[in-house]
Design brief:
Layout (H helix, E strand, L loop, with lengths): L1 E4 L15 E4 L10 H11 L2 E4 L4 H4 L7 E6 L5 H4 L3 H10 L5 E5 L2
Parallel strand pairs: 1-2, 1-3, 3-4, 4-5
């Protein structure tokens, strides 16, 4: 699966998703791009956009865009996100284009 990590997430998060093709917003040269344009661009090249922006679903109409996974943790530090990886992998297996899902520690 082709995954784009939002610029607010640590790039080392890609290392714990070795079975996927993972790039970051800065690697794509899209740093600072507004969310609507970012989602449009990402939809051409990626299957899933992973972000920590919990307001994205309220700011953007996601219909017709790629799947979006929102990571909910105490912080965006890798140490806080690592406990989410098993649930993230499980959600990556079932998420559909144009949908949004939240991954949080229970």
């Amino acid at each position: 699966m082709r995954i784009l990590l939002d610029e607010s997430l640590p790039k080392k998060l890609a290392l714990v998703l070795p079975e996927h093709e993972v790039r970051t917003v800065p690697q794509m040269g899209w740093a600072g791009t507004k969310n609507g344009e970012l989602l449009r661009r990402a939809g051409v090249e990626f299957d899933v956009f992973v972000t920590a922006d919990q307001n994205l679903q309220y700011q953007q109409n996601l219909t017709g865009f790629i799947a979006v996974l929102v990571l909910v943790a105490d912080s965006n530090r890798l140490e806080s996100l690592l406990p989410l990886v098993p649930a993230l992998n499980a959600e990556l297996e079932r998420i559909q284009a144009g949908t949004i899902a939240r991954v949080a520690v229970d």
